[in-house]
Amino acid sequence: MKHVKLFAGAAIAALLTACGGGATAPPVPSNQTQPQDGLAGQPTDDFRTALALGYIRPSCTAASDGQARCFAYVLTAAGRAALTAGERTIDATSVSGYGPSQLQSAYNLGPYIAGGAGRTVAIVDAYDDPNAESDLATYRSHFGLPPCTTANGCFKKVNETGGTSYPAGNTGWAEEISLDVDMVSANCPNCHILLVEANSTSFADLGASVNTAAKLGAFAISNSYGGSESSGESTYAADYNHPNVAITASNGDSGYGAAVPAAYNTLTAVGGTSLSTASNARGWTETVWSGTGSGCSRYIAKPSWQKDTGCSRRTIGDVAYDANPNTGVAVYDSYGESGWLVFGGTSVASPAIAAIYALNGTPVSNASNAYSHTSSLYDVTSGSNGSCSPAYLCHGEVGYDAPTGNGTPNGVAAF
């Protein structure tokens, strides 16, 4: 499988200056800042160039203080046209992007894919997607997955207090919701799905939604959103700390610079890779995706199970999964959209890892297993999301590195 080669070189600065990423783009980190105490570094060229050229677009608008934005990115018509015709088609009906069979193959989930029955993966997002259940049905039917409906008890949608008076609809967050439920389906087809819709993008509402998910019996809870660190972030830390519930959070898509909730040390912070087919024993290869977040928290203490020495506090992240829109995943969304889309961003990664926790079925409270079972992860040793010192905070390296943590799933034992 081939992928688009994005422009690089002197033209990038001009493109970024001219385009600025638009009102909905995330903030561009300052250029070449040394990544100490969570300061931002400049991401490498491909992600920012793709954004500037309009090859990808963010689903959600930028977040103000105390608010979160989702980390989903859509491959646009221009981006799809930039790929050689047909090279991203994965089936006879011309649906583009990786589907369940490719993702299960890439991450060696086949021997475990029958698991997960009776375990609930919760998705926490803001606002309502009125078409969530019907769109999920289209995705699962297309890929031959068993039905997951309210009627058969597999799917449930609630508001942030567990009721059925849903918040206002929002097309951007509906894209995120469609992505999240499809990624749970792809990685754990027998899992139940609980969608908890927060009233707004505030951390107060999102944190309340996480608590509701835990109260309703979720085995794992995915959070594909985040915001910048602040001195008051510990206010919401308890919302992401539920014993024996696997909580995942996306690292973010702005290169080096810590984000919350990924910075909390009671959950698994998930970074992103570029995933491509390869003529090796695995059949796949991965590098650090140039847009993935990574960081060194300003405020959150380093957990006992994290042993890197270049960051004295919590290092983000722990593990990773495919996130590059150019090696993105197929998603079906009809709320303000035409149907089949290709998505990337670390929003792909968080629900996928939450689903893999449910496949394993061992109750966990944090990411420590990913540090004690590194042989069950594919080490990502190349690529970067910027330039920083020490280099492992931005670059893929042998062993632990911040953008991809200890690596990507090789089966389920690390989860």
Give a description of the structure:
This protein is an alpha/beta fold and 415 residues long. It has one domain: Peptidase S8/S53 domain (Rossmann fold, 3-Layer(aba) Sandwich), CATH 3.40.50. The protein has helices spanning 11-19, 45-52, 77-81, 100-106, 132-142, 171-187, 203-215, 346-360, 369-372, and strands spanning 56-58, 69-70, 73-75, 120-126, 155-159, 192-198, 220-223, 225-228, 246-250, 259-260, 268-277, 284-288, 295-301, 313-316, 319-322, 329-333, 339-344, 377-378, 408-409. The strands form five sheets. Strands 4, 5, 6, 7, 9, 11, 12 and 15 form an eight-stranded mixed beta sheet that branches. β16 (329-333) and β17 form a beta hairpin. The radius of gyration is 19 Å and the shape is globular.
Which key features would you list for this structure?
415 residues, alpha/beta, Rossmann fold, 8-stranded mixed sheet, globular, disordered N terminus
Short description:
The chain is an alpha/beta fold.
**Strand residues, percent:** 15-25%
What's the number of helices? 9
Terminal CA distance: 29 Å
Counting structural domains, the number is 1
Shape: globular
Low-confidence stretches: 1-45, 84-92
Element-by-element helix/strand order = HHEEEHHEHEHEHEEEEEEEEEEEHHEE
Oligomer: single chain
Per DSSP E runs of 2 or more residues, the count of β-strands stands at 19
Helix share bin: 10-25%
Mean pLDDT: 87
CATH topology: Rossmann fold
